[in-house]
Specification:
Number of helices: 6
CATH architecture: Alpha-Beta Complex
Largest sheet: 5 strands, mixed
Number of domains: 1
Order of helices and strands: HHEHEEEHEHEEEHEE
Distance between the termini: 50 Å
Strand order of the largest sheet: 5-2-3-6-9
Oligomer: single chain
Number of strands: 10
Strand content: 25-35%
CATH superfamily: YbaK/aminoacyl-tRNA synthetase-associated domain
CATH topology: YbaK protein
Amino acid sequence: MAKKPKKNQQQGGTPATVALTSADVPYTIHAYEHDPAHPSYGEEAAEAMGVSPERVFKTLVADVDGALTVAVVPVAGQLDLKALASAVGGKRAAMADPALAERTTGYVRGGISPLGQRKKLPTVLDASASTHPTICISAGRRGLEVELSPEDLAKLTEAVVAPIGRA
């Protein structure tokens, strides 16, 4: 007999949506047609959904003192690597190799979600998320976003909430 998450995945779910459903967290799925020619996955998502880029968050994987760490920041800004390192008690941070990020999380670049990753990584959520009732993050596939409360995201990922984004 198949387990429920596998059934959900067969119906178009992703590990991220399975994790949300299993945790009984309210969320809304937003699907759109991904354009491979668009220069920015996050900006494309914001435009396609008609949502302010300050409410759409991108998931980035960085190497902090030799340990992969997830940073969730608004697509309207950039990740402050020094602030990320500081938020997790590290000294230096650099963006992780994209192939390593994909292998470790189980997602493809442009579709990496902070939820349902193959290997659970330390996560830092930008403090600006708490200024919104809901935010949008990748649901684990290009062209698929999930909207949820920043509090639920922080709880599910056991995230540190810190000012790691910059304009």
